[in-house]
Write a structure and sequence with these properties.
Pfam family, one: SoxG
Number of helices: 4
Protein name: Sarcosine oxidase subunit gamma
CATH architecture of the largest domain: 2-Layer Sandwich
Strand content: 25-35%
Shape: elongated
Oligomer: single chain
Organism: Haematobacter missouriensis
Number of domains: 2
CATH superfamily of the largest domain: Probable tRNA modification gtpase trme, domain 1
Radius of gyration: 17 Å
Distance between the termini: 49 Å
Largest sheet: 6 strands, antiparallel
Length: 185
């Protein structure tokens, strides 16, 4: 396991307080899981205490979250200390099935947007329709690839590559600055 596992990005703990709060979220363990055999994948996930999400969906259990990223790709969000064991269990369960299981924890960063205008902030910087509750949208914000979803009441989570974390933070913070609401109240 990397010495840097579980670290925040090099952005520091700066938070942006506009009409929506933008904060880098504590980093979860992240595993990309690619497999074209839906039945085997569903069985493997069930065997490790996770559930296969609906198309474009998100499922949450005590063991972690599963995000639907594409027809043959899922992203698992886990406790960082559970990543190695989860990967070993999935490799064993999918032993006879072509599958790719990769720890991408150090490659991604997450931001939480909190406030009643969280959806509006994303709508200003993404061409995609906002996801319905329980869905994950994979698109872009500004000029970078990102995925986002509702993670609570008046809260959205955005995930992107760590290499563009500064740009993402600045873009989200600028879109969330006070006075930039589309219809100020």
């Amino acid at each position: 396991m990397s010495k840097e596992r579980g670290r925040m990005s090099d952005l520091g703990s700066l938070a942006s307080e506009g009409y929506v709060s933008v904060v880098e979220a504590p980093p979860p363990g992240m595993v990309t899981l690619r497999c074209r055999d839906g039945a085997a994948l569903t069985a493997a996930l069930t065997g490790v205490g996770l559930t296969f999400p609906d198309h474009r969906g998100r499922s949450v259990t005590e063991r972690g979250e599963v995000l639907w990223m594409s027809p043959d790709e899922l992203l698992l969000l886990l406790s960082p200390e559970d990543v190695a064991g989860m990967m070993a269990n999935l490799r064993e369960a999918l032993d006879k099935v072509p599958a790719l299981i990769v720890d991408v924890s150090d490659a991604r960063v997450m931001f939480r947007l909190t406030g009643t205008g969280a959806e509006e902030v994303l709508s200003k910087i993404s061409p995609a329709l906002l996801p319905a509750r329980g869905e994950v949208r994979r698109s872009r914000i500004g000029q970078i690839a990102a995925a986002f979803w509702h993670s609570g009441d008046a809260e959205m989570t955005v995930i992107c590559f760590r290499s563009v974390a500064g740009y993402a933070r600045d873009l989200l913070s600028y879109a969330a600055r006070r006075g930039s609401q589309i219809d100020p109240v």
